[in-house]
Amino acid sequence: MKYVRKKYEFNDAEDYRERYNIAVCADENVIRAMGVLIFSILQNNSDNFAFHIFFRGNFSDIEKQRMESLSNIYHVPIVLYFLDDEELHNLYSTSDISITAYYRLLMPYVLYNLKIQKVLYLDVDILCIDRIVDLFSINLYSYVAYVIKDFTSVPDWWKQYCSSIGMQTTKYFNSGVMLINVPNYVKNDIGNKAIKLAMERNYKYMDQDVLNILLEGKVLFDTSCTYNCTMSVTKDILSEKIKFIHYTGNKKPWKLYTLTWGKSYFNNDREHAWKYTYYATWRRYAKDSPWNEVPYDLPKNYTEYRYLSRMYKEKKEFAKSIKTYLIYLIMKIRRQLMIF
Predict the structure, then answer these.
(1) What is the pTM of this model?
(2) What are the E-state strand segments in 123-172?
(3) Among 3.90.550.10, 1.10.1510.10, 3.30.1360.40, 3.30.420.60, what is the CATH number of 4-222?
(4) What b-and-e string marks burial along 164-198, b requiring 16 or more CB atoms within 10 Å of the CB?
(5) What is the pLDDT along the chain (340 residues), one digit of tens a residue?
């Protein structure tokens, strides 16, 4: 398979081995999120970084201008890779997660050709709020990757789930943050094995499941949330020094209905109030980034219209609150009629 179909470079580097390499995978639906992520890293780190974007879809001229602006201001190489992804088209995907998620399986093969030894892979729904260069000093030895525990569910559930996908332990990681040992990844042919495994079964968590299966016993496993603080982290395990905020789940900070989150407790949820403050943090970075004029995403289903109605009510925009609540009711009734 010829991985790279086309490449577009902003301030290309002569030797990527001398840089801290970061990779993201994205499509045209999350360009803003990706841009804010890269911007947040550069705002908190003045080190020798390089960014590798594995992209699917149309990267418009205005987006190229924004990315070029970021590259020029911070004097950092940013490379866009457009992949030949025909092999991935039949793999399981959802309305929220496209086949672009599988791009990270192929990404190390491309970077291996640049003689890159380590690459930090990040999901686009992440925000950097501190220096991260220490992460690259982790010695991976013979490991394929450094990974971080997934804090999504209770231990008993994870034990059952890990067993159901064929794992021998409950050391299940969230694949949104991975420091990858590129030569070891390629040597073990993890990507091609993962694609083959994903073709055999529609795994619930898609490529994350197959990576956990294939990398069991081959990863440096971190149980702290410093470098991957997801929205399911509870206060009792919340790290004092968070580096990456990971907005897991469907409630993304670029959605319009989250616009007041962080200014007040969402649904009087004081127990999880800490996480809502990070929505306000994302908005601050977005406002200062080249993507500051991009509008927030409108609701895509009736649940999101209910959230939006609540948001307008908090802002005392009652006419809009009533209108969006009526849309919520109509969409919900239509949905129920379709079920029956």
Answers:
(1) 0.93
(2) 126-128, 145-149
(3) 3.90.550.10
(4) ebebeeebbbbbbbbbbbbbbbbeeebbeebbebb
(5) 468 889 999 988 889 999 999 999 999 999 999 999 999 999 999 889 999 999 999 999 999 999 999 999 999 999 999 998 777 777 766 666 677 888 999 999 999 999 999 999 999 999 999 999 999 999 998 999 999 999 876 667 888 899 999 999 999 999 999 999 999 999 999 999 998 998 888 888 889 999 999 999 999 999 999 999 999 888 777 767 899 999 999 999 999 999 999 865 555 565 667 788 999 999 999 999 999 999 999 999 999 999 999 999 999 999 999 999 999 999 999 888 876 6
Residue 264 Cα to chain centre, angstroms? 26
Q: State the span(s) of the chain assigned CATH 3.90.550.10.
A: 4-222
- How distant, in Å, are the alpha carbons of 117, 174, 189, 208 from that of 185? 10, 17, 6, 15
CA Rg value for the chain: 20
